[in-house]
């Protein structure tokens, strides 16, 4: 089972990996469509985890 924290770390790793390797992001100096998708997934995971933390504490 994937915990919200796992999901958060995975989505952040995917986003950072993309930011490092994507030529279009570097070429344009602005995030490409894939980067925006990954960033949105990362933000969603972060929000999901914040909810989990709030429920626990
Ligand atoms: Zn990109």
Characterization of the model:
By secondary structure, the protein is mostly helical. The protein has one domain (4-56). Helices cover 84% and strands 0% of the residues. Helix 1 packs antiparallel against helix 3 (33-56). The radius of gyration is 13 Å and the shape is elongated. The two termini are 22 Å apart. The model has no long low-confidence stretch (mean pLDDT 92).
- Chain oligomer state: single chain
- Backbone CA Rg: 13 Å
Main sheet characteristics: none
Strand-pairing-aware structural class = mainly alpha
Number of discrete domains: 1
Instruction: State the share of residues found in helices, binned by percent.
Output: over 70%
Which term fits the overall shape?
elongated
Give a list of the ligands. zinc ion
Topology (SSEs and partners):
Layout lengths: L3 H18 L1 H6 L4 H24 L1
Bound molecules: zinc ion (ZN).
Features:
57 residues, mainly alpha, 3 helices, binds zinc ion
Task: Please sum up the structure shown.
This protein has about 55 residues and is mostly helical. The protein has 3 helices and no strands.
């Amino acid at each position: 089972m994937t915990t919200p924290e796992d999901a958060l770390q995975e989505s952040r790793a995917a986003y950072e990996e993309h930011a490092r390797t994507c030529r279009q992001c570097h070429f344009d100096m602005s995030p490409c469509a894939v980067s925006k998708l990954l960033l949105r997934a990362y933000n969603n995971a972060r929000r999901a985890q914040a909810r989990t933390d709030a429920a626990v504490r």
